[in-house]
Protein: CopC domain-containing protein
Organism: Sporichthya brevicatena
Amino acid sequence: MIVNGFTRVGAAVRARLLVTLLLLTLGQFTLATGAAAHTGLVGCSPGYDATLAAAPKDVRLTFSEPVRSEFVEMTVRVDGTAVPGTRPVVAGPVVRVDTSAVPADTTPREWEVAYRVVASDGHPINGTLRFATDPAAPAATGEVSAACAGSGGNSGVAKAAAVTGGILLVLGVAVAVIRRRVLAA
Ligand SMILES: [Cu+2]
């Protein structure tokens, strides 16, 4: 009897844990699917990892929706040194920073543009766009490139997808366990 009593209590606790897990999972699932619809970086100029023959006259980031101009931060570094006087200008979904004052170089340079913007829904988006200048490189077209994935701007979406995948797996296992329990009863 004692053994049976313990078993019954154990089963009740396990069932309650399972229900709690399911509810938590469903809650996270709702959050994750919401996250997938958030504003993301859809274009950048210069392109991520591009090599230009000369310093660009500006750096432009294009987001999937307008961003809030009062919260935009952009820091341009050339070979690790911040370029002074580069203030970002927001026009709807495009954030632009003028870099025309950066002097021409005769040697290759590594550029880093760290950005942090706040989407219209209040969520922050941050990342770093990297590219290089090399006087020996062929002249670039200067067009807005969609190759911005490496800059980290879309990492939120990728993370949400990974979280959703993990949650679906947990849900599947939980459902399988419950079904086996119901069938066994
Ligand atoms: Cu959002």
In short: Confidence is low (pLDDT under 50) at residues 29-35, 153-158.
